[in-house]
Amino acid sequence: MSPSVAPTQRNKIYHAVLPLHGISLVFAVSGLSGDLAYRWLRKERDALAAHRERLEIELEGKNRVLEAERLEEEQEIVARMKGERKRCLDYEQSKLQEKIEWQKFVSCTSRPNVMFESEITTYVTMVREEKSDRESMESAIEKCKAAEEVVGDLLELYCKACEEGDVIRQDWCMHYIAEIRELEIELIDAATAHLLLYIEKQEANTYSQVYLQWGNAIDALKVGFWGHLQSKGFRAKSIEHSKIQIGLDLPKAIQMQSAGHCIGVRSLYTTFDSAQGKDPQMGIGGMIRVDLLSIPPFSKKVKGWTIRQVPAPGKELMKLPYPNTEHTTASTAIAAPCKIDYKVPAHVLVSKSPVVSWWDASLERWSTEGISEITWEEDTRKISFFTARLASFSITQERHIDLPYKHWNMRPCDDLTVELTVQAARYELRFMISEDGLRLKGPQMPELLDVMFEAGSGEAGGLSGPSGRRPRVRSPATLLNELRECGLNLMPKNSDADQLEGYTPKHPETQAVGTMNTFQAEQRLPVQRIQDDIGARMTTLENKMRTMQSARRLDAFVPGVRPGLPVSPQARDGREINPTATGLNSKRLGTIRLKSSVASHNNSLVPGEPADPIPGTSSHGKWLGLRGTTESQANQMLGSLAQDLDELGENPTLPVETSEPRGDSEESEGSVQDQTTSARGETATIPDGDGSESPQDSDTSYNAKNTLSEYNQDNISARAYSDLSEIAAYYDIASSVHNKDLPAERALVRIRENELHEVFNPMDPDGDADYQALMFFPDKCCFVQSLEGISPCREAMAPGHVTHSSLYLCFDKHPSPGPAHAEQLQRLEVTTSTVRFVEAVRQTMQLMHLLSFV
C-alpha cells in the first residue's frame, strides 16, 4: 500500500498486540508501517524509562533500609552519650543551685520564692488586700519597687526556662509578670485617687495650680502631676516636671472638652510597657502614660463638720478622654494636639528617625495615628512629639529590625572559651562564651557599656573596661534579654520569620526537643515503614507500566485480521519489517528484529496479573520489574531507542484503538509524556528523541525529599545546636549562604579544625575549601560537598561518608581517620569539666536561632 491511501482505507483499523518482555517481534507493514514502528519505539522507550525508575526506587529503598538499620544501632550509643552529658550537667548545676539558695538564705529576703506558684499568688493577694484607699504616692511607689524585685526573680526564672526550652514555664512566668505589673499600676491609680480626693490639702500657686513630682530622672518608675483647682480660667499651659524630666504642653481645648470639671494631668513613666509580645512592633525606652483626670468636688465645712463626697467603688479615679467625642462640637471637631517630651534612658539604642506610637488597648496593637513632629535630641536624649490624643506612648520599632543575620561564625580563642561574631542587620556584635556564661565584647557603644561591664571597678583576668570596670558575664538568656531592653532583639521567635521574606524557622517553637534537661533519644525511621513506603511507590509504578502495556496494542493494517482483535501467536512470534516502508536506515537496520532484551521470569505483563514481588520486600506494593536488566543496560537501551526515534523524525498521525481516525500528534505525544512521569512525585528527566533531557511534570503528590520530615518532626535546630556545642572548643563553626534555601527539615553549617586558636576569615573565598560543610536532618547528620562559591547547594554526601545519628559518630566513623584520631575523639567527649561550657554554647546558639535567621 502506498503512503497516500484513501480516507476510507485509513479508517479501516486492525489491532495487534506487542508483548513487552522476553519476545522477539518482527512484523510486516505497509502504508503506515513507519508510523507504527515510530510509535512502538516510543512505547518501548517509555517502558525502559519506567524500568530504570524501578531500579532507582529499588536502590533507594535498599539504601534507606540500610541507613535506618544503621541509625537504629547508633541510637543506643547516642542515648548513652547524651545521658552521660545530662548527668554531668545536672551535677554541675546542682552545685551552682546550692550556692544560689545559700545566698538567698543569708540575704534574709521576704520576697516569695517564685519557683512555687502558691507563693506568687499569695503575694499578689496580700498586696491587693493591703491596698488602702488612703494610700500615699510615696507608699505606693515603694510597694512598686518591691514588686519589681519579684518581677526580677520571675525574669530570672523566665530566662532559665528559655535556656532549657521550657515553653510552658516561659508562658507561666510572663503571665505572672504581667499580673504583678498590672498590680503596680493599680497601686499608682489608688494613690492618685486618694491624692485627688484630698487635693485641697496640697499647696497651690497663685493661679490655683498644683505641681507634684515623685522619683528622679533615672528611676524605673516616676510620677508627675499637675492640677488646676478651678473649672474656669484655664489657658494653654506648658508643664515642666524638671526633677523627672517630663514635659507637657496642654492646649486650651482640653478645658473646653472637659467643661464643668476641675482637671488634673498625671504623667506616669515606667521602664516596662503593657504590650510585650502582643504586636509585631516592640516598645523600647519604657512607656509614658499621660492621663487627663477629673478632680472630684472639694470638701465643705458645715458647723465644724467636714463634708466630703466619697466616689462609688470602682469610680475613685475618673479618667477623661481626649479628644472627648461625646462633647465635640463643630468648633472643636479637630482637637488641638498636645506636646509631650521625656528623657530616654541612657542604655537604649535609638535610631536617628525614631517612631513614637500609642497603645490601642481595644485592638492590642501599637498605632501611629495622630502623632506628628517627632524630634530626637541625641545630646540630651530627649524625645518630643505632638499627639492628638492622650494615651500610653512609647518609642517603637519592628521586632525583627536586627534580622536576618547576614552571617555568623564561632572560633575558639582560649581553653573552653570561644568568640561568637554575629553580623546582624544593623550592627556587628561580638560575644565571648565560657563556662561562666556569656558576655558582650562589642560593639563599643555608650548605650551598651552597662551591659558589657560591671558597675564596680577592678581587674578580671587582665580584661578591663573603662575606668577598670570588670567585664560583665551573665547567663546567655539574661544577657540577651538585657540587650532586648536596649533595643537589640537577638532572641527572635518563630513568628518573626513571617515578617521576613524567604525565611522559614528550622524548628517549631512548640517543641522542646534537644535541650539537655529534657533530652530523649529521637525515634528513628522503622525499617518496616520504609519498606511500606517503597512498596507503595512501586505499586504506583506498576499501575503505570500496566497502562503502558495496554497502550502497546498498536493499530496496524494487517491483512486477514479483523479490526480490534489481537494477532495470532505466529504474528506475536515475529514478522519481517520492511526497512524501506518504515523509513529507517537500511544499512543500520537491514532486516532487523525488534526485540526486548529484558526477559525475566515475568515474560509478559497481562493487565490484572501482578508481577512477583521482590523477596524480602513489603507486600503492600508488588514490586514490578523487568528482571535481568541492570540500570546501565536500561540506559543503553534508552539511548539506542532515542537514535531510532531521531531517524524516524516527527511523529506522524497514528490510528487509535477505535473505529474513528486518530486526532493530532500532540495528543499522542501527550499520552506518552503522561506515562513517563516519575512515581516519586518529582519532575522526572527522560531522554527525548534528540538525546536531550526534558522534564516531565509529576502526576502524584509524593515528594521523596520530604519523606524523613513526614515520619519525624523532631526539632532539627536543637539537635544541631547540641551537636555543634560539643566541638566548639576545637573547631571554627560558620554559617552557610545555602542554609536559607534549604527546607525546614535541613540545616547547613561549615566547620574547620582550629586547635591552635588561629584567626580565619570565614567569608574569604580563597579559604572556602578549608571548611567542611555539615548538614543536619531531623534524625541524622553527615558531611556534604557544598561550597559557598558554588550554587545551588551541593547536597551530595562527601566521598566515603554516610549519615550518622550524631556529629560525634561522624568523626568516630570517618572513612579516613588521621593519626591522632583517638585523641581527637577523646577531646570531643563531654565531661564534668567541659559540660558547663558546652551547655553555654548550646544555649547561646539556640536562643539566637542562628540556623533559622541566616
From TrEMBL:
Domain named IC97/Casc1 N-terminal is located at 49-230
Q: Where is the composition biased (Polar residues)?
A: 670-680, 693-704
InterPro entries annotated for this entry?
CASC1_C, IC97/Casc1_N, IC97/Dnai7-like
Q: Which family does it belong to?
A: Belongs to the DNAI7 family.
Q: Which GO terms describe its molecular function?
A: beta-tubulin binding; microtubule binding
Q: Which superkingdom does the taxonomy of this entry point to?
A: Eukaryota
Q: Name one GO cellular component term.
A: axoneme
Short name of one Pfam family for this protein? Casc1_N
Q: Which organism is it from?
A: Symbiodinium microadriaticum
Q: Where is this region: Disordered?
A: 560-587, 600-625, 648-704
Q: Where is the CASC1 C-terminal domain?
A: 364-439
Know the name of this protein?
A: Protein CASC1
Residue spans crossing the bilayer? none
